[in-house]
């Protein structure tokens, strides 16, 4: 629950802040550090004079630790250097609702944590196929187009991108409800060359309607809709407010305030009105494949 000030601003209590984009990333960072340490939550709790449940709640994001708590936690685990600084930075601003994440590590931490816990994902992709639907060759064509990355780092990032999809498919119980709106330009942008694009488009047809994934194409020429302003992803959760992620070339913005989420929900509804049905979309993609193969 949250309360409001007289000027309409939110006051977040622990239950609210535990669902913000930054606290989700913090929880993921703490889990990763603990996993790498070889210690258990119970052992760390004894060393910090904290209960086992408190340590567990820090890792799940149900409770937000103070910066001092996080500093002590990392010290016990032996986390130093750049990784320690990054986690402490998350902790210092954990209660910020909206979040500008700079750099690949922060971007991925926020995005992966949202994907891990979401029950609904609405993905608008006007120019590039969603990372959760990409083939290895298509992902490699995008990630590998960076002279600053060593081949080993490219391999690592491609594997991580593919694993994000695998994690959705391997969930226990109900799969995530993943709706993907794809702009027609994304189907025709020849990323990686014709063969790579054709393989990618066949993959879209294969995935449409499977394991909770629904793909709808938005043809060009349909007039104005808010999606023309750029891509975004909406993550819906069972017990926490939704989060909007806007991913740019070198950073991501995570939005959490009600007004922002409502605005993007309305934008997705407008995009849906401009999209063709999933069945028509599969046919549309097959037509694009045919056109490519005739060239």
Structure report:
With 295 residues, the protein is of the alpha+beta class. It has 2 domains: 1-97, Orthogonal Bundle (434 Repressor (Amino-terminal Domain)); 98-295, Endonuclease, Chain A. The protein has helices at residues 14-17, 21-37, 41-48, 52-60, 67-77, 81-92, 104-117, 136-143, 151-169, 184-188, 194-207, 258-274, 278-294, and strands at residues 2-4, 10-12, 99-102, 120-125, 177-183, 213-218, 232-236, 243-247, 251-255. The strands form 2 sheets. The chain has a 7-stranded mixed β-sheet, sandwiched between helices. Helix 2 packs parallel to helix 5 and helix 3 (41-48) packs across helix 4. The longest helix has 19 residues, at 151-169. The termini are far apart. Residues 1-17 have low confidence and may be disordered.
Q: Layout of SSEs?
A:
Blueprint: E1 2-4, E2 10-12, H1 14-17, H2 21-37, H3 41-48, H4 52-60, H5 67-77, H6 81-92, E3 99-102, H7 104-117, E4 120-125, H8 136-143, H9 151-169, E5 177-183, H10 184-188, H11 194-207, E6 213-218, E7 232-236, E8 243-247, E9 251-255, H12 258-274, H13 278-294
Helix pairs in contact: 2-5, 2-7, 3-4, 5-6, 8-9, 11-13
Name its key features.
Endonuclease, Chain A, 7-stranded mixed beta sheet, 295 residues, 13 helices, disordered N terminus, two-stranded antiparallel ribbon, 434 Repressor (Amino-terminal Domain), alpha+beta, 9 strands, single chain
Distance between the termini: 58 Å
CATH architecture of the largest domain, by name, is 2-Layer Sandwich
Approximate helicity band: 40-55%
Please tell me the total number of domains.
2
CATH level 1 name of the largest domain: Alpha Beta
Counting helices, strands and paired strands, the structural category is alpha+beta
Largest beta-sheet characterization = 7 strands, mixed
- Give the mean pLDDT: 85
Number of helices: 13
How much of the residues is beta strand, in percent?
A: 5-15%
């Amino acid at each position: 629950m949250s309360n409001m000030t007289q000027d309409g601003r939110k006051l977040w209590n622990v239950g609210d802040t535990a669902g913000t984009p930054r606290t989700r990333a913090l929880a993921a960072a703490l889990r990763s550090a603990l996993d790498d340490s070889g210690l258990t939550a119970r052992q760390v709790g004894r060393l910090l004079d904290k209960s086992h449940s408190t340590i567990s709640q820090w890792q799940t994001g149900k409770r937000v630790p103070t910066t001092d708590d996080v500093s002590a936690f990392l010290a016990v685990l032996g986390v130093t250097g750049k990784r320690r600084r990054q986690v402490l930075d998350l902790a210092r601003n954990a209660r910020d609702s909206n979040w500008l994440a700079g750099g690949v590590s922060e971007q991925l931490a926020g995005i992966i944590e949202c994907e891990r816990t979401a029950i609904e994902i609405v993905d608008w992709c006007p120019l590039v196929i969603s990372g959760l639907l990409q083939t290895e060759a298509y992902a490699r064509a995008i990630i590998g187009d960076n002279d600053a990355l060593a081949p080993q780092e490219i391999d690592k990032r491609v594997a991580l991108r593919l694993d994000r999809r695998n994690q959705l498919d391997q969930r226990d119980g109900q799969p995530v409800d993943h709706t993907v709106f794809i702009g027609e330009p994304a189907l025709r942008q020849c990323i990686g060359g014709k063969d790579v694009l054709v393989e990618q488009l066949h993959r879209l047809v294969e995935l449409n309607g499977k394991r909770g994934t629904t793909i709808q194409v938005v043809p060009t020429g349909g007039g104005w809709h808010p999606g023309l302003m750029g891509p975004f992803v909406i993550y819906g959760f069972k017990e926490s407010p939704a989060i909007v992620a806007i991913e740019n070339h070198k950073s991501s913005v995570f939005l959490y305030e009600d007004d922002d989420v409502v605005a993007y929900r309305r934008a997705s509804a407008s995009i849906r009105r401009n999209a063709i049905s999933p069945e028509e979309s599969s046919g549309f993609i097959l037509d694009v494949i045919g056109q490519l193969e005739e060239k």
